[in-house]
Amino acid sequence: MDQDLIDRIKSDMAYEFARTAPPEGFPAFHDIPVGRHISDEFYALEQEHLWPKTWAMAGRAEDIPNPGDYFVFKDLGVPLLIVRGNDGDVRCYYNTCQHRGAPVVRDDRGSSRRLRCQYHSWTYEIDGGTLVSLPDERDFVDFNWEERCLPRALADEFAGFIFVNRDLDAKPLLDWIGPAAEMFAPFQAESLREVYRESIIVPCNWKVTAEAFLEVYHFRHIHSHNGVSVLDNLGAAMGLYPNGHSRMITPYSRQNIERLGMKSWDDWRDIDNGDFGIIDTVPAMIDCTSSAVSLFPNVIIPLGKIGFPINLFWPIDKRTTRLDWIYYAPKDWEGDELPDHWQMRRNQYNTIMDEDKANMAPMQESMESPALTGIPINYQERRIWNLHEEIDRMIGKQNIPAELRVEELLDRYIER
Ligand code: FES
Ligand SMILES: [Fe+2]
Questions:
Q1: 413 — pLDDT class (breaks 50, 70, 90)
Q2: Does domain 56-169 have CATH number 3.40.50.2300?
Q3: How far does the centroid of ligand 1 lie from the alpha carbon of residue 116, in Å?
Q4: Which residue has the CA at smallest separation from atom 1 of ligand 1?
Q5: CATH of domain 3-52+181-413
Q6: For the chain, give me the number of helices (H) and strands (E)?
Q7: 383 alpha carbon to ligand 2 midpoint, in Å?
Q8: CA angle, 8 then 280 then 9, to 5°
Q9: In ligand 1, which atom is closest to the CA atom of 97?
Q10: What are the residue boundaries of the structural domains of the chain, listed by start?
Q11: pTM
C-alpha cells in the first residue's frame, strides 16, 4: 500500500462523491439468477468444481512453528492434515490412511516426525507422504509401496496465513493472490497473533453472507446507531483484482469525521488508538476510513491499525453457513483473557456481526419465494459481480446451465 495507491484511492473517492451516475460506459448487469443461491444444482456445481480447486485459508504459521507440528483442517469438506516439513515448508496431505481409511492422525493438532496411523501403524514421512513402514509386510501379496503414499494437496504461506488447495495443478498461491497482496504490505501480518475468535451458524447460503461484506450499500440501513452511520457509502472507492479478489475503502460520515476531529473525509491523520497496540507501518488512511480486502471465495478482512478480523464463510449445506471471525493484532499480553479495551472492541465488532446476522438469517426463505425472479446488482455492488464471475470461471461456463450463468462484464475494470 504505497503512496501511489493511497493517492489513487483518494482521487477515486473524490470521483465517487462527485458522480451522478455510474461511469460512462459501465456495463448494465443482467439480474443474477436466484438459482445460484437457492438451487441444489448450483450448490452441487460449487461442491464439484469450486471448493476442490480453490485456495482456502486454513490456519496460521505460528500454530505449527516446528518440523512435525501439524493440525487437521476439515472446512473444505474433506479431512486434510497440514504439517511443517523438515525444511520448514508447510505440506498438506489427506488425513486418510491408505490402508483401511482410518484418520492418520486423530488429534486436531500435535507434533510428530512421522505420521503413524493408530489403527495398524502404517507410517508415512512428513516431507512427501511416503509410506515408510508397515507391520507384517509378508502378508500382503505383491505390495506396491509407491501406490500407498499419502495423497497430497498444495499448501503455502502468505502473510503468516497457511493456505491449502486440493488442486495439484492450481497456480501458485502468490500468483493467485497477485496484486491484492498490496493491501497486506504495511500490516506486518506475520507478527500478529490471534486475540480471540468467534463462530456462528447463519441459516443462509454462503454467498448471501459473503455478499453482505462486499458492499456498503446496506451500511447506514443496518448499522446506524441512534440515527448515525459511521460510514458514507457514497464515497466508497473499490478496486477489482484478478481471480475474484477485491478491495473497498469507504470514507467516514460527516458525524464520524467531526467526532474524530478530522477536518474533512480526506483529512487522513493518525488517530489516538488509546490502549491498543498499533502497527506503526500502517498508513493513516486505514485509521480514517473503513478499508477492507476480500480474497476469493470466502475471506473478508476489514483492516485496522490495531489489527484485523479475518471473516470466513464456510458452506455447511445449501442453506447453512458457518461464519468464523478471528481477530489478529499485535498482542502484548500473555494468556487468553482479554484486556478491557479488547473486550470492548470485541463487543463492538460482535454488535456489527449481530446486525448482519439478523439481516441475513431470514433471507434464504424469502429468496426461495417465487416472488424473487432475479437479483439486480448496481454499480456500488460490483464486487459481488466480481465474485460471481470468478465462481463461474472456476466451475467452467460449459458446466453451468445457461439460465444460471453470469456474463463476464468486468474484465476491463480488473487491476492487473
Ligand atoms: S487403517 Fe491405517 S494402518 Fe490400517
Ligand atoms: Fe454489514
A1: very high
A2: no
A3: 9
A4: 100
A5: 3.90.380.10
A6: 11, 17
A7: 15
A8: 10
A9: 2
A10: 3-52+181-413, 56-169
A11: 0.97
